[in-house]
Amino acid sequence: MPPRTVMSTAAATAAVLALGVTLLAAAPQSGAAAAEPAPVTDYCQGQCDDILPPGQNGNATLVEILGNKAFGTHPAHSDDQIDRYDGLVAGHTALTDQKLTDFFNDASFGVPKDRVESVVSPRDDVTITRDKATGVPHIKGTTRYGTEFGAGYAAGQDRLWLMDLFRHIGRGQLTSFAGGALANQGLEQQFWPQAPYTEADLEAQVAYIRTHEGPRGEQAMADAQAYVDGINAYRDKSKNGRYFPGEYVLTGKIDAITNVGGIEPFELTDLISIASVVGGQFGGGGGGEVQAALSLLSAQQKYGVAEGTKVWESFRQRNDPEAVLTVHDGTAFPYAGKPDKARGTALPDAGSVTAEPLVFDRTGSAGTDHKAPVKAPANLRKAQGIYDDGVIPEGSLPGSGSGAQKRGMSNALLVSGKHTASGNPIAVFGPQTGYFAPQLMMLQELQGPGISARGVSFAGVGMYVQMGRGQDYAWSATSAGQDITDTYAVELCEPDGSAPTKDSTHYRYRGTCTAMETLERTNSWKPTVADSTAEGSYRMQVRRTHYGVVTHRATVGGKPVAYTSLRSTYGHEADSIIGFQMFNDSDLVKDAASFQRAASNIDYAFNWFYADSRTAAYYNSGMNPVRAAGVDPALPVKAERAYEWKDFDPAANTAAYTSFAEHPNSSGQDYYVSWNNKQAEGYSAAGFGLGAVHRGDLLDDRVAKLVAEGGVTRASLTRAMAEAGVTDLRGEQLLPELLKVIRSRPVTDPELNGVVQQLESWRAAGSQRRENGSGSHAYAHADAVRVMDAWWPRLVEAEFRPGLGDDLYRELTAALATDESPAASHGASGAHSGSAFQYGWWGFVDKDLRKVLGQPVEGPLGRTYCGGGDLGGCRDALLASLKEAAAQPATQVYPGDDTCKAGDQWCADAIVHRALGGISQKTIHWQNRPTYQQVVEFPAHR
Predict the structure, then answer these.
(1) What is the C-alpha to C-alpha distance for residues 196 and 926, in angstroms, rounded to an integer?
(2) What is the rounded CA–CA span in Å between residue 441 and residue 176?
(3) Any idea of the CA torsion for 134, 443, 826, 323, to the nearest 10 degrees?
(4) 490, 61 Cβ separation under 8 angstroms
(5) Which pLDDT value is given to residue 231?
(6) What's the confidence (pLDDT) of residue 30?
(7) Nearest to 73, CA basis, from 899, 924, 923, 919
């Protein structure tokens, strides 16, 4: 297990956060005991840049919200990074190192005197200096407590409302707090069952850090308490000064005239709640074994057990030999593989699976979108109904909505100094976290005793910079998604010995009939100015066992069971605080090796990347449980002691974990790319979709070419990222094979041949989804893009459904959606979210078509499907589906939504910063790119 402390448990990138619990001691008074920190040397020397649209300022008073609704005005620094971010689409082709700051912020430490906009000292041991260009807080403390207090105070200044939202989302209380809009109901129903806790559970997690993490745990708790104290200081000051966020008025929390009402104080347990949301979004991995079992059963039913299992495994692609890899030097890291002979697998009986009910006792508008608008005062009417569609539109957060099981996003490109013009490593990297106004993250610089960093932190857990730069190094992360979640089948029983049913609420635990624990959350709401949803209420209920939370009921071999989900990080949402603390400590992180050791203290599933002036490096973090021999992690397993994780202790949800060396890691490789692709050979995929074609190929092909040419610069690596970010994966990787099949004989239909020629021209031009002129809001090759968007789902169905049959095709598409184009309303984060092409049948289509064409295929599918394996039959199927697609008008391909008119192709793709508060932002050009991004090249080192 990671060499952390007594017992390794970690938490989330979000987890990143949470810590302390009982207050170590009274907060030190300002000025207490610590010398002025030594002057900080910035070894990046002006070669570190970053960007986080739309802007730093995420708070808006009521007056500012009303001004935005009436006149389109924006508070200072709420939108001053959006144009530079958007501008890279048109500007990347002519990008030079000197032009980088046209599209990025200067991420140097400190603020020159002539660029200071404001200086605030909430205590006499800390100053918060904001720069004129962006308003980013540069926090400098003479004491550790003061530094962290300043971080909390600045977080209050920039994200008070957002932090309040997320602590209530984490607790499953969003509707009671912000209104009963249907999307709010859906969001809390998605997130709370993933991390349902009592207040005692939250307090226990805080206590765990203190009792298991030694001096660093004690320090983390002190830092967390100081951070919370800073938030509460700003909360009180803004309330008394009447410059608090206006959303508190619009949701009925505070009276605009009398100032009666309040903002609930923040507590350490709130940080745990926020951490559970962030970790659930970006740091989870595995799960979904019930759906996997259903698709396996369907394959076995169609082909027989042996052949069906072979076919299913070919689609599951646990270790596809053609998958793009982050560690590509041949080093293998075996984990979560398919056992030679599986033991304890618990497949359900056909037709027996039912989902565990969650919502009970609905009243009023619960489960509906019924509105009952209040009579708003005249001066508030411009803002009436701003949350009628929810504070966060359903599906906008990764880990919510129809793609709830999908987590991911973020990319990284790093090149070793051997291949750069300067001889120093270069990195272009960042987390891809969706687009919101304000963003979920916020920029900050922290300088104080034991802390020296600039970068981003998730709002509400920003005691430390979570991704950013130190004095002579920078780091970032992508979601890794390896398997840290298993599904167990617990045998149901009745305490009186009678025959159990699927509805039984007791289960056998190590021979004893044990009661499931019932966790409940009752929410109610009334209409407000912000949310017109009519009065309503409901109760959410989950059942918890020693093997996790119940998700489904079924029978196995005729016996009733409950399927449960056991995540290794459950109950440890904040343990990763230690790793983040280390990242910010320049006395600890001095090189790639020390960074990797620090990263091993992050227990959520992340890929960590590091660059200094000498080395580029990589480490995969995660609380990877050591499974019992013979257990197949891809399928449900019996809840018996023989199949438990090694050294499993259900009381604390701890176990034995894989060692530091067993995690994929590398230092000094020629280059690294990551776009949520496969980490290394042998590191088994936790779900479907890591195959021969992946969006990581868009990066890998470009960076490999740069490395082969040599002389890589910050600008050339940024260009590679930006070009990949406007490229259609299907057009670049799959269209050549599709065209080979189609052109295997002449296309005699003149109209259809014209469509094929349009696709050929688009492919020759780079398969990009990009304006034909800056600001035109119209794509070059618009018809070809429209045809591809209409054709892809049709061609996948035409290629695979006849051979797979309706049932197996349905189950496999439930496990992995066929498409995730920029215009799709489904996927990991819904429509208008930037991220695209992460999940789809790209690899299946590629392998199948190459087989039809007679080309070599490593790790082929179990059967050849297109045209039954016949080239002519495949061609006919593709042309028929292409003809259908070409006839579909743009108004049907892009049906329109609350942002776009039907048929508006550019808008259907475009990025929308979803308003989490009262300030809206303009729509910008689609980019498949990190939300927060760094471009770094350190020329020197300590």
Answers:
(1) 36
(2) 24
(3) 120
(4) no
(5) 98
(6) 39
(7) 919
| Gap between the Cα atoms of 266 and 239, Å rounded | 14
Tokens of 630: 């013979």
pLDDT at residue 404, rounded to an integer: 39
Low-confidence ranges of the chain (pLDDT < 70): 1-38, 394-409, 825-830
Instruction: Report the 10 Å Cβ neighbour count for 40.
Output: 15
Backbone phi and psi for residue 305, each to the nearest 5 degrees, phi listed first: -60, -50
Antiparallel, parallel or unpaired: β 426-430 and 933-936 = antiparallel
Whether omega for the bond prior to residue 357 falls within 30 degrees of 0, making it cis, is no
Q: Which residues contact 277 (CB under 8 A, 6 or more apart)?
A: 14, 166, 169, 170, 191, 195
**Predicted confidence (pLDDT) per residue in 239-284, tens digit:** 999 999 999 999 999 999 999 999 999 999 999 999 998 887 788 8
Cα distance between residue 933 and residue 430, in whole Å: 4
Alpha-carbon gap, residue 132 to 233, rounded angstroms: 25
How crowded is residue 363: how many other Cβ atoms within 10 Å of its Cβ? Answer: 12
Q: b/e for 581-609, b at 16 or more Cβ within 10 A?
A: bbbbbbeebbbbebbbbbbbbbbbbbbbb
Closest CA to 861 of 799, 794, 798: 799
Reported as type and span, the H/E element at residue 305 is helix 305-316
> Which residue shows structure tokens 């109950």?
571
pLDDT for res 63: 97
Cβ neighbours, 10 Å, residue 289: 30
Q: For residues 123 and 101, what is the distance between their CA atoms, to the nearest angstrom?
A: 34
Tokens standing for 457?
A: 């932190």
Backbone angles phi, psi at 549, to 5 degrees: -85, 135
- Whose tokens are 């005239």? That residue is 257
Distances (CA, A) of 510 to 516, 639, 643: 14, 9, 12
* Paired tokens of 562: 């409950």
Q: Tell me which H or E stretch contains 936.
A: strand 933-936
Question: Helix or strand or coil: residue 660?
Answer: helix
488 vs 345: CA distance, rounded Å = 9
Say how many CA atoms lie within 13 Å of 777 toward its Cβ.
Answer: 10
CA nearest to 726, candidates 683, 774, 692, 794: 774
Distance, C-alpha 626 to centroid of its chain: 25
CA distances from 31 to 28, 121, 130, 151, 227 (A): 8, 12, 22, 17, 17
Tens-place pLDDT, residues 713-772: 999 999 999 999 999 999 999 999 999 999 999 999 999 999 999 999 999 999 999 999
**In the prediction, which pLDDT does 392 show?**
84
Helix (H) / strand (E) element for 665: namely: strand 665-667
C-beta atoms surrounding 730 within 10 Å: 23
Which tokens belong to 255?
């009276």
Determine the length of the chain.
942
Contact 438, 447 (CB under 8 A): no
pLDDT for position 7: 33
Under DSSP, the state recorded for 803 is: H
Q: Could you tell me which of 531, 247, 166 has the C-alpha nearest to residue 369?
A: 531
CA 292 from centroid of its chain's CA atoms: 22
